[in-house]
Amino acid sequence: MSTLFRNALVVAMDDTNRSRPFRSDVLVVGDRITAVAPDLPVPDGAEIIDCTHRLLMPGLVNAHVHSWEALFKGRYDNLPLELWMLLSYPILGLEPMSERLIYLRTLLVGMESLRNGATCLLDDVIESPTQSLTALEAVFRGYEDIGIRANCSGNIVNRRYIDTIPFVDEMVPAELVTEARAVAPRTTEDYVQFSKEALTRFDGRAGRLRYVIAPSGPQRCTEELFVAANELSREHDTTFHVHVLETKMQAVTGREFYGSTLVEYLDSLGVLTDRATLAHGIWLTDSDIERLGAVGASVAHNPISNLKLGSGIAPWRALLDAGVNIGLGSDGLSSNDSARMFDVVKSAALLHKVTQPDFEAWPTADEVLWAATRGGARSARLADQVGAIAPGRKADLVMLDLNALNFTPANDVARHLVYVENGDSITEVWVNGEVVVRDGRCLHIDEDAVLAEVRELGGEYLHRYAEIEQRNHALMPHFRAIYQRCCREAVGINRFSDDERAWVGVL
Ligand SMILES: [Zn+2]
C-alpha cells in the first residue's frame, strides 16, 4: 500500500534542510517514507493526496509524559513539586486504579497527543501505589488501539517517597513517618523480573510500541537497582530515562544523601551514557552540564511543567553549547495540564528569553522545532526512525492547512509553527504510514464513547480520591517546612528568575 503526497510544502527537519521549507512530493510505502523529491512517478495503485495547500512536517515527539496524571488536569495550583506530589502521587491510603480506567486514561493522553500533532511519546508509567504487569498491559493496549507510537516504562523505584526527601526524620512527626513507611518497597530482583517480563510481553508490539527502562530518580532507587536497570537498558538498547535535578530540594538532596551532585552520583555508578535522558535537568552545575555533554546524554525539557510547579528554569543555552541533546516534553497531565505539544514548543521558545539580555543566545524557532522532533527521537533511541521526513524514516506525519487562520497571512513558516500554531490547522496525522487523525478526530477509537466513560468511571474515582488527598494533607505542613529549609540552603547555583536574596529572607 502506498500514498503519494503531491506538491506539499515540506518542513522536513532532515540534516540538510532542518526547518527550512521546500516544495516536494513525499512517497510513503507501507510504514515508511521511501522518497522525497518533486514530480515523483505515481506507483501502481498509489493513493494520491493533493498537498498544494498543505504543509507536511514530521510528527512531534513528546520526550516525557506521565499518563498516571491524566485524570488530574486542572486540579491543582501553586504547589511546588514535592508538595504537589503528596496529592498527585499520594503515599497514604491509595488503592490501585482499575485496569479499565488505566486504559481509558491512556486513551486520553493518546487522543490529546495525536490531535495536537505528537505521533510519538515517552510515557514514564508511574502507577500508585504500586504497579502490576496487567496494569501496564492496559497502558500498552490503549496506545496500541489509538495508533500512536509509544515508549512506555515500568515504574522503577525502590525507595519509599518519604525516604527520598531530606530532613524527614528531624522534621516530620514519627507516627506519620512510620505510617508512610508501612509498605515495603519492592526489591531490585522484583523490578528486574518485572522489566524482563515486560520486555517479552510488550516490546515491539504493533511495530510501534517499546518497553523502556526508567529508574525514577537517583534519590528514589538504590545503587543496586540503578546498576541493574542500566544493564537492562544496555542489553535491550532502550533509553535510560531518569528524573534528575528538577527542583532545588533535589539539589540539596544530592548533597545530603551522597555528598555530591546527583549527576556526579549517577556518573560514579557508571550509568551516564548516551542512552541516558535526564528529565528536567534544571539545577545542574556547570560541571554537571559538561559531564552530560561529554557522554552525549539527553535532557527532556518540560518548560510548562517547570513553570507550573515553580521548579526553576533549565539552562537551555548552556546545555546546547555543551553538546547535550534536548528533547521537549509535556510532563504529566497534572503539572502541565495537558499533553499538547504545540503549547510546549511555544513555551520552550519563550521561557529562555527572560533569562538573559543577550538576545543572540535566545532559542531560535529552528532549534526549538529540532528539539521537538529530532531531539525527542534521539532521546527515545529512535534517532534514525522518526523525527524527520526523509527516505527510510517511519511515516509519522502531520499535515496542516496553509489556508487556515494560523497561516493567514503566511510569513516565516518555522516561526508560524513555533509561535502561531496551536494544532488548529492540523487536517491529518499519520503514524507508521496509517492515517490516525482526520479533521480533529482520532479515527481508531470512538472518542465520544471514551469521554463519556471517563466522565462516569473517572468521576467516581475522583470522588474517592478526594478523601485520599485529605488524608495526605497531614504531611503537607511538614513538607512545606522542608521545602522552605531547602530553598534557604545555598547550592552554588540559582535557577529561579529572581535574585536569591529577594526570597531567601521571606521563607
Ligand atoms: Zn516526570
TrEMBL record:
Pfam family name, one: Amidohydro_1
PANTHER family reported in the protein's UniProt record: AMIDOHYDROLASE-RELATED DOMAIN-CONTAINING PROTEIN, AMINOHYDROLASE SSNA-RELATED
Name assigned to this protein: N-ethylammeline chlorohydrolase
Domain of life: Bacteria
Claim: Transmembrane is one of the keywords in the record: no
Any GO molecular function: hydrolase activity, acting on carbon-nitrogen (but not peptide) bonds
Keyword tags: Hydrolase
InterPro entries: Amidohydro-rel (IPR006680), Metal-dep_hydrolase_composite (IPR011059), Metal_Hydrolase (IPR032466), MTA/SAH_deaminase (IPR050287)
Keyword tRNA processing attributed: no
